[in-house]
Amino acid sequence: MAKKGDRIQVILECTEHKDSGMPGTSRYITTKNRKNTSDRIELKKYNPILKKMTVHKEIK
To answer: Which of 7, 25, 32, 39 is deepest in the core (most CB within 10 A)?
Structure first.
């Protein structure tokens, strides 16, 4: 049986929205495997406030 604890929940936050100074935030919650991906992840996700695809980085 697989042991528990390898997958953890991470929060992704939009980098463009953070720098723009507009109110609100664009955040997504996802999971990652801690063993395979030890560094922080970056994904292109849709930002509904800016209405376009932007880079979302993992925050602590």
So the answer is: 32
